Amino acid sequence: MSKLNTYEDAVAAYEPVLGLETHIELDTRTKMFCGCSTTFGGEPNTQVCPVCLALPGALPVANRAAIEATIKIGLALNCSIAEWTRFARKNYFYPDMPKNFQTTQYEEPLCEEGYVDVTVDGKPYRVEIERVHLEEDTGKTLHVGGATGRIHGATESLVDYNRAGIPLVEIVTKPVPGTGALAPEVARAYVTELRDIVRSLGVSDVRMEQGSMRCDVNLSLNKPGAEWGTRTETKNVNSLRSVERAVRHEVRRQSALLDEGIKIIQETRHFQEGTGETSPGRSKEEATDYRYFPEPDLAVMEPSREWVEELRASLPEPPRQRRERLQAEWSLADKEMQSVVNADAVELIESTIAAGAASSSAVKWWLGELSRRANEAGEELGALQITPAQVAELQGMVDDGRLNDKLARQVIDGVLVGEGSPAEVAQKRGLEVVSDTGALEAAVDEAIAANPAVADKIRGGAHAAAGVLIGAVMKATKGQADAGSVRQIILDKLAG
Amino acid sequence: MSTISREEVAHLARLARLEVTDDELDAFAGQLDVILESMKTLAEVDTDGVQPTSQAVPLVNVFREDQPQPSLPRDAALAGGPDTFEDRFRVPRILDEEA
């Protein structure tokens, strides 16, 4: 268990330098170099062929759609697109690749030198992109052994190569200095922006929780004015929240070591989702000896300028620009829009509005009650088991007077645990505003009888006192009355 | 002076996850040295003005369309592996690394 400084102490004494490597699985129909399907969830080893299994004599051919998708990503990240580029072999021996190498790009990536602009705490940061290259994903290994009880006494790996060969885009930033204490937030903002950009291109579903977007976080610390420190690379960072937590943890851990005069070693670390800490993985010195060389089995690529311009012309409205447009359409203040973005709610709200809700209601639900639920559950907003269409349905029930806010929140309880749509939950749990006027009037009469002094005050014109009676009626109806209607009935009865 | 050292051979063996005895290290270093020495003959060719290439065929932009093709039947795919378990390839776990 390593010692940690508080985050505040750490950033008071040291300046963090960030770097992010992001892998994105493209959603092409076929793999990078063969015609095997990329459909997720197939039976193990049913989407493999001589090429992705590296059987002798098999020859790879690059997937045009994957090249186009990568160029689009490069263009959307303001990169220049190589006029001449090729693949390389990264040689390593690990059973996740049957070839004993991964086909990737080395000195000649498809795209280079771009940037992503993000805003954190009202301040703009430009995260520079070093390169965007194309490679292939690895197979999935399942480690089994005596400890799991599955195979007694054995310690081995079971491998499924369905994922091996799926096109994977790697996006590497340049080191990002100058973020100070905001390093975790800048890291998260960058990954969020990158995800939104790639999603807008429609080339990947970029779902971190499903592994179609994966992030490695590089971090080093230095004393102000000193040279940059040695960095660690944290892997397995699989949610936006984890990106932030991983940065925060490394800042706290490294600063505690540096305080004691201990050198940081360049190593790969693993993020532990449960504790929010990082643990050491393999050290870099041997692993980096990948003996890259140009891939002889694949032709070099010379993307024509016409092709590149055609792709550029096909790019959608950039997410940042789109957000500015939506902010105006939704009439939100900068701060509110920032909250929407931070909560990762832009698309959720947009879809909720598309499903029929007013923009103010859509914003209110996602930023208010639902954000609170997500926080309580330690989940991303989008991971909540409620769809934008259901939120719109819920708001519709409120608008129709069938639910009040309190009941609506109880309906959300049911939707989140899978009891069905808002209408179904309301029906099953008996959550409907009491609209039976007779029943309400009876409850009001009772409340008046039980509180004669209050009733007199209201008769005397002190309408504010109605709150007491409303409270009594709400209690009597277990909250299932519309407070506005109750108030009206009370005032009508006690008028004059 | 040999072209490849015993340490380099040991390093390569480690990267390739091969277990090599001390005797074998000596033997392989000697054998690899002969191979590398022979390949040095190529260095005598005058390559001034010749563009470096990684390929013998002057093709560019060879792409395939994104159309799924049939994969191998699973049994045929698994038949090439050393061992299988529950439709997966079974291999020794590499202990010093996490996946």
From TrEMBL, chain A:
Domain of life: Bacteria
Residue ranges annotated for the Asn/Gln amidotransferase domain, each copy included: 347-494
Annotated Pfam families: GatB_N (PF02934), GatB_Yqey (PF02637)
Keywords in alphabetical order: ATP-binding, Ligase, Nucleotide-binding, Protein biosynthesis, Transferase
Signal peptide: none
Catalytic reaction(s) noted: L-aspartyl-tRNA(Asn) + L-glutamine + ATP + H2O = L-asparaginyl-tRNA(Asn) + L-glutamate + ADP + phosphate + 2 H(+); L-glutamyl-tRNA(Gln) + L-glutamine + ATP + H2O = L-glutaminyl-tRNA(Gln) + L-glutamate + ADP + phosphate + H(+)
Record Gene3D superfamilies: 1.10.10.410
Xref: SMART domains: GatB_Yqey (SM00845)
One BP annotation, GO: glutaminyl-tRNAGln biosynthesis via transamidation
InterPro entries, per database record: Asn/Gln-tRNA_amidoTrfase_suB/E, Asn/Gln-tRNA_Trfase_suB/E_cat, Asn/Gln_amidotransferase, Asn/Gln_tRNA_amidoTrase-B-like, GatB, GatB_Yqey_C_2, Gln-tRNA_amidoTrfase_suB_CS, Gln_synth/guanido_kin_cat_dom
Subunit structure: Heterotrimer of A, B and C subunits.
Entry's family note: Belongs to the GatB/GatE family. GatB subfamily.
NCBIfam families registered for this protein in UniProt: gatB, PRK05477.1-2, PRK05477.1-3, PRK05477.1-4
Reported function: Allows the formation of correctly charged Asn-tRNA(Asn) or Gln-tRNA(Gln) through the transamidation of misacylated Asp-tRNA(Asn) or Glu-tRNA(Gln) in organisms which lack either or both of asparaginyl-tRNA or glutaminyl-tRNA synthetases. The reaction takes place in the presence of glutamine and ATP through an activated phospho-Asp-tRNA(Asn) or phospho-Glu-tRNA(Gln).
Name of this protein: Aspartyl/glutamyl-tRNA(Asn/Gln) amidotransferase subunit B
Organism per entry: Glycomyces buryatensis
Gene designation per UniProt: gatB
TrEMBL record, chain B:
Annotated SUPFAM superfamilies: Glu-tRNAGln amidotransferase C subunit (SSF141000)
GO biological process: glutaminyl-tRNAGln biosynthesis via transamidation; regulation of translational fidelity; translation
Catalytically driven reaction(s): L-aspartyl-tRNA(Asn) + L-glutamine + ATP + H2O = L-asparaginyl-tRNA(Asn) + L-glutamate + ADP + phosphate + 2 H(+); L-glutamyl-tRNA(Gln) + L-glutamine + ATP + H2O = L-glutaminyl-tRNA(Gln) + L-glutamate + ADP + phosphate + H(+)
Highest taxon, organism lineage: Bacteria
Ligase as UniProt keyword: yes
Keywords from the named record: ATP-binding, Ligase, Nucleotide-binding, Protein biosynthesis, Transferase
One Gene Ontology MF term: transferase activity
EC number: 6.3.5.-
A Pfam family matched in the record: GatC
Similarity-based family: Belongs to the GatC family.
HAMAP family per the UniProt record, alphabetical: GatC (MF_00122)
Biological role stated in the UniProt entry: Allows the formation of correctly charged Asn-tRNA(Asn) or Gln-tRNA(Gln) through the transamidation of misacylated Asp-tRNA(Asn) or Glu-tRNA(Gln) in organisms which lack either or both of asparaginyl-tRNA or glutaminyl-tRNA synthetases. The reaction takes place in the presence of glutamine and ATP through an activated phospho-Asp-tRNA(Asn) or phospho-Glu-tRNA(Gln).
PANTHER family: GLUTAMYL-TRNA(GLN) AMIDOTRANSFERASE SUBUNIT C, MITOCHONDRIAL
Subunit structure: Heterotrimer of A, B and C subunits.
Protein name stated in the entry: Aspartyl/glutamyl-tRNA(Asn/Gln) amidotransferase subunit C
Species assigned in the record: Glycomyces buryatensis
Gene: gatC
